[in-house]
Write a structure and sequence with these properties.
Elements lengths: L1 E5 L4 H13 L4 E6 L19 E5 L5 H11 L3 E4 L6 H6 L1 H22 L3 E7 L26 H20 L3 E6 L2 E2 L8 H10 L4 E4 L5 E3 L1 E2 H14 L4 E5 L4 E3 H12 L6 E4 L14 H7 L7 H14 L1 H8 L3 H9 L4
Bound molecules: nicotinamide-adenine-dinucleotide and 2'deoxy-thymidine-5'-diphospho-alpha-D-glucose.
The site of nicotinamide-adenine-dinucleotide (NAD) has 29 residues, from helix 1, helix 4 and strand 5.
């Protein structure tokens, strides 16, 4: 089997590439990534010399490039992680999200239609369901929950999902979609909450918490997400959506305090700042379908997973210091300059 993983130099994509290269030496894994600010080949040093791994730099929204790649490589499976993934950036620049997340996905689908494919898997997000109220802990997102988006990011992901399903129904492309909750773990870019707080707390810098810090996210270790996608490729039913989540709901403030406690840093570093516009209140996944149908269950409990993740950032300071000391500095100034 030849499997093309798009966005394989990003946070989840690189964890998935490493998982697949190691687990399936008989499969050829091709990592197709544009290497935007979020793509980092340093994530892949563990597998870069593996005989069943290859990296190709390219843009999923570049039609000629994508069609040439299909012509040459004739992939059996596409797993599409490639995306602009940060909600705050989507508020600053929605168009780049439409280009990659919508046009990039439809370009890949067109190539699948032209050249044929055994499976196109779209890595989607729980954000396509919108948010849940904070005072209704009995409510969860199921696969039947209507799409109801809040941010340009989630709207672009929902649009992509609709195209994926349309290409299945209209052109018979064998697709699956997974919608996962917030991931944490190694190689997450330090613009996202957990690595941002770890890196700033270690430097005794103020920690920006949006609004009141009461918003809730449903955290899943990235390894559990990768195993779930692997299982969907193997056993998932074509044309189906699978929600992925581990019932690990925490308020943002709880997450920040957990990190501070683990690092032995004071809560006085916390700074409540202007809220994210349109900030989703609560995400919470009902994973019953993937659990009962495919037998998936998460291996990590949040406390252990967080301890290991914090230790990983302590052991790999060089990895995130490269990022923080690079062009990311100007992003941080732009996004937080007036907030802090
Ligand atoms: P990320 O931002 O860390 O990585 C995205 C990768 O895509 C980068 O390597 C980047 O270079 C690449 N890329 C961007 N534009 C591209 C283009 N036009 N062509 C080719 N490559 C391109 O993102 P992530 O957090 O790893 O998320 C991966 C996927 O999972 C996304 O589709 C995201 O919507 C989805 N997702 C993320 C989470 C989460 O918590 N991070 C949860 C659920 C779903
Ligand atoms: O739910 C899945 C989604 O999770 C993915 O689809 C997205 O790609 C991924 O970025 C993530 O989106 P969030 O917006 O939930 O993640 P983020 O890490 O940006 O923020 C998590 C929460 O923390 C959110 O409620 C906003 C808050 N936050 C974030 C930052 C960066 C802060 O309070 N302060 C911050 O500085």
């Amino acid at each position: 089997m030849k499997i093309v993983v798009t966005g394989g130099a990003g946070f989840i994509g690189s964890n998935f590439v490493i998982h697949m290269v190691k687990k399936y030496p008989e499969h050829q894994i091709i990592n197709l990534d544009l290497l935007t600010y979020a793509g980092n080949l340093e994530n892949l040093t563990e597998v870069e010399n593996a005989p069943n791994y290859k990296f190709i730099r390219g843009d999923i929204a570049d039609r000629k490039f994508v069609f040439d790649l299909f012509e040459k490589e004739k992939p059996d499976i596409i797993v599409n992680f490639a995306a602009e993934s940060h909600v705050d950036r989507s508020i600053e620049d929605p168009e780049s999200f439409v280009r990659t997340n919508v046009m990039g996905t439809t370009t890949l689908l067109d190539a699948c239609k032209e050249y044929g494919i055994k499976r196109f898997h779209q890595v989607s997000t729980d954000e396509v369901y919108g948010d849940l109220p904070l005072d209704r802990p009995d409510l969860f997102f199921t696969e039947e929950t209507p799409l109801h988006t809040s941010s340009p990011y989630s709207s672009s992901k929902a649009s992509a999902d609709l195209f994926v399903m349309a290409y299945h129904r209209t052109f018979g492309i064998p697709v699956t979609i997974s919608r996962c909750s917030n991931n944490y773990g190694p190689y997450q870019f330090p613009e996202k909450l957990i690595p941002l707080i770890i890196s700033r707390a270690l430097a005794d810098e103020e920690l920006p918490v949006y609004g009141t810090g009461e918003n809730v996210r449903d955290w899943l270790h990235v390894s559990d997400h990768c195993v779930a996608i692997d299982l969907i490729l193997e056993k998932g039913r074509v044309g189906e959506v699978y929600n992925i989540g581990g019932h690990n709901e925490r308020t943002n403030l709880e997450v920040v305090k957990t990190i501070l406690k683990a690092l032995g840093k004071p809560e006085s570093l916390i700074r409540f700042v202007k809220d994210r516009p349109g900030h989703d209140r609560r995400y919470a996944i009902d994973p019953t379908k993937i659990e009962t149908e495919l037998g998936w269950e998460p291996q990590y409990v949040f406390d252990t997973g967080m301890k290991q993740t914090i230790q990983w950032y302590l052991d790999n300071k060089e990895w995130w210091e490269h990022i923080i000391n690079g062009e990311y500095t100007s992003y941080f100034e732009k996004m937080y300059g007036e907030r802090l």
